[in-house]
Amino acid sequence: MFEPLQNFIIPASNRFGISKELKASYMCKIFRDIVPLVFPNIPEIENHISPHSFNETYIVVNVSGPGFAQEIMMKKNEIIRTFNKKAGKNILKNLRTQIKNNIY
What we know:
Blueprint: H1 6-15, H2 19-38, E1 49-55, E2 58-63, H3 66-74, H4 76-87, E3 94-99
Parallel strand pairs: 2-3
Antiparallel strand pairs: 1-2
Helix pairs in contact: 2-4
């Protein structure tokens, strides 16, 4: 009788030409969700690390300083593994960082 909304979202996004943007938005959400899991000992980590953009196989991450960029690179493999597990497939292959003074 009723069909899940998810069955309509992808076809609708394809029809309106926004499927790429929808996918990027979802990938950035997954990244936001896993950051506290990968960095449990850093309080308010989301104030220092946030996704900027997603492009097919890599994500660009804004960081508040070089120390956080180094933290990202040190845990790069763990981040990619955790991300792909949450996504349910091997989408993310690489990470890139860029330093931004104001993340939000």
